[in-house]
Amino acid sequence: MHAQQQAVPVEAANPVQQRITDYDIYTGRVEAAQEVDIRARVSGFLREIRFEDGALVTAGDILFVLDKRRAQASVGIATAALALAEANRDLAAAELARAEELASRQAISRQDRDQRAADLAAAEATVEGATADLELARIDLTDTEVTAPFDGRVSSSQVDIGALVDGGSGQGTLLTDLVSVDPVEIVFDAAESDYLSYVRLDLAGRAGSSRAAPAVVDVMLPDEDTWQHKGQIDFIDNRIDAASGTIRVRAKVPNANGLFAPGLFAQARVPRSEPYAALLVPDTAVLTDQAGRIVYVVTDDGTAQARAVTTGVLIDGLRVIRSGLDPEDRVIQSNLVAIRSGVPVEVMAPPNDDAEPAE
């Protein structure tokens, strides 16, 4: 007759019940919401630089001033041309009026009267052309002052005072560049499997689409260990990249304090589900056997029993159990190397008195 097997002392407790949200975590880059190369629209010698390298500027601030003399001269020439055109138009109008009077007395041929009318129409067209030329000249004069198109931070000046600036095209002289500061964008790539999961959850009504209602995301920088920043997904690309099997996603993040700078790495945490009630156990209580992940529970007769479980994410040292456990189960949390199914156990005090057992 064999001696009765001695009970193994263990610590056990009910799973912690908590409402959680499932997340996916992606690594991306910080980009400016707006970025532009600053180039002149007209050519000329650079006369002034009105900003400090790397400074914050406001939309409309003058950054560079080019030599205005040629543009001012062009305005003068266009103004004189318009005045001459208007004088010719007035003369043509007076001659047409006299021709109308003579034609009423049949003192002038109809052909002469029509010629006067044509002369007036040509003079009016010349006035319209001269007006447009003057407007262009004034625009060129205005463009000798290069302004910031939006609020942001400028880089360093790429030209010196006195340099000849070539303007008027995309290949013109680069003067500096400007990036917006607030907000910034976090751009990352999601796997096509993640994309399909989100779409299917949306179709099943279990999670809203970020295309229809922007999802709130949490953001963490490389020197941080908590999710201190929040943003919103505002763009999902319209196709999967065939080469990488990913889709481009963008989240907009406030940056009032200027902490984020273009080029920084950042992590984005995207919710995969609505908050739901979950069971959690210490991660150390979850073991692996040939069949998968298991935990040991204490049965009513005081023995250990292995339970196959499906696990989820890790939250503050606790592992989410998606299936395989009930709230009333007492999960063994210590002396696991001595435990096998059917082994008698003696339950000691739970390892964490602060953990709230299931009711």
Task: Give the integer mean of the pLDDT values.
Answer: 88
- Distance between the amino and carboxyl termini: 42 Å
CATH classification class of the largest domain: Mainly Beta
**What is the number of domains?**
3
State the low-pLDDT regions, or none.
none
Q: State the share of residues found in helices, binned by percent.
A: 10-25%
Task: Outline the biggest β-sheet.
Answer: 6 strands, antiparallel, barrel
Main β-sheet, spatial strand arrangement: 3-12-15-14-13-16
Q: What amount of the residues lies in strands?
A: 35-45%
SSE order = EEEEEEEHHEEEEEHEEEEEEEEEEEE
Descriptive report:
The chain folds into 3 domains: 8-21 and 276-348, conserved putative lor/sdh protein from methanococcus maripaludis s2 fold (Beta Barrel); 23-34 and 182-271, Efflux pump adaptor protein, beta barrel domain (Elongation Factor Tu (Ef-tu), domain 3); 68-143, Helix Hairpins (Orthogonal Bundle), CATH 1.10.287. Helix content is 23%, strand content 36%. It is built from 3 helices and 24 strands. It has helices at residues 69-104, 110-142, 192-203; strands at residues 8-13, 16-20, 23-32, 35-39, 44-49, 56-57, 62-66, 145-147, 152-154, 164-165, 174-179, 184-191, 216-220, 229-236, 246-253, 265-271, 276-282, 287-289, 292-298, 304-308, 310-315, 318-323, 331-332, 345-348. Strand 13 and strand 14 form a beta hairpin. Helix 1 (69-104) runs antiparallel to helix 2. The longest helix has 36 residues, at 69-104. The two termini are 42 Å apart. The model has no long low-confidence stretch (mean pLDDT 88).
